[in-house]
Amino acid sequence: MTAGENVAVAEKPAERPARIWEIDFLRGVAIILVIGYHLLYDLRDYLGIPRFLGWSTDLSTVAWTIAQHFFAGLFVLLSGVSSTLTRSNIRRGLRLLAVALALTLGTYLIAVWLHLFDPADTILFGILHCLAVSMLLYGAVFEKLSAAASALCGAAVIALTALLPILKKALVIRSDWLIPFGLPRPSFSSLDYFPLIPWLGVFLIGAALGRTVYAAKKSLLPWRLPPTFVNLAGRYSLWIYLVHQPVIMGVLYLLGKVR
After folding, report:
1. pTM value?
2. Range of the domain at 67
3. Where are the alpha helices (DSSP H) in 84-236?
């Protein structure tokens, strides 16, 4: 090999590691479930349809509450796993926080201009806000801890959930400053609300899994599977999350069902 070839090899950028198939797939499953959940919500709230394709649109039932927590928890857990596979959680967190704040502004303007919902229901601390702050906290504090310590901190945060009802009774909360910690004022309402307690705990447990199960940053599957539509949805889950509700509402609006 000549000197020129050596330089060429040295200057060749390192190949990006292969995406982990099962993480993309599970994230895709989660975002598809979110879309289905929101579709059922919109059909009942704006059209009054009790069932759609055999599914009840009454999302207040225990079964739907459990389902919602399952796929939301799966999404947050996988975000925690992914936080161990990136170079900078601070940078990722700041970018996502900017998107989350834009979502807050967007939902407020939609409520004011289109009157689709009450401006009081503006998303102040939804799942994107929660994930962004979790990334920032993980990158600044928890990334320096061991996987076991991260898991213990996650379990402790989840355990704090049991104290929230007691604190709500003991404190007189009249502002929105404690919303990120699961302590909103009694009249608080929002289209999307994911406080750090308990969801930061789920994120940290996911990070602990990422640092142990995926320490090699490689798929656990013994064979290479072809990408699927679900994997594609998982890879672009953020963009799908941002556009799916406007698309659903836009279709209903064009059909004359939303005024």
Report:
1. 0.89
2. 20-216+226-254
3. 89-114, 127-140, 147-159, 164-170, 196-212, 229-235
